[in-house]
Amino acid sequence: MKNLFLIFSHTLTPEQATDATNSLGVENFVSLPENLKTLWGNVPPDAELDFATYLQPLKDFLAATAQAHDVVLIQGDFGATFHLVNHCKQAGYTPVYATTERVAIEQAQPDGSVVLQKVFKHKAFRRY
Questions:
Q1: By C-alpha distance, which of 2, 9, 4 is closest to 76?
Q2: Spatial CA neighbour of 125 closest among 43, 12, 36, 41
Q3: Each residue's pLDDT tens digit, 102-122
Q4: How many domains is the chain partitioned into structurally?
Q5: pLDDT tens for each residue of 5-42
């Protein structure tokens, strides 16, 4: 059974789940435990950060739960993402990210102002 590990700060949409099943052969979706979601979603903005040490709990989680054929959806802080993508490649996992189509909708208001709404629609998963 191929798993998709969700290492990102959003909720997987139904379209993404369907696409992961159809295009990646995913049968099971694995969310991070709350403590690791918090770790991933709160990468310190300090200028110098030792990602190898900071991300070790995530790497330990993957080592304990992922198989070599599993897929890992990674999106977040650029430096943390870069580090974790490299780790996943070395460990034999398939790191991916989601691509989106952006649609802008402009709505004129009675006062003459314009409200701009951006809608993001899932298109595909792409390998790093």
A1: 9
A2: 12
A3: 889 999 999 999 999 988 899
A4: 1
A5: 999 988 999 999 999 999 999 999 999 999 999 999 99
Per-residue model confidence (pLDDT) at position 7: 98
Give the residue numbers spanning the domain of 93.
3-127
DSSP string for the chain: --EEEEESSSPPPHHHHHHHHHHH---EEEEPPHHHHHHHHT----S---HHHHTHHHHHHHHHH--TT-EEEE-SSHHHHHHHHHHHHHHT-EEEEEEEEEEEEEEE-TTS-EEEEEEEEEEEEEE-
Q: Please give the model's pTM, rounded to 2 decimal places.
A: 0.87
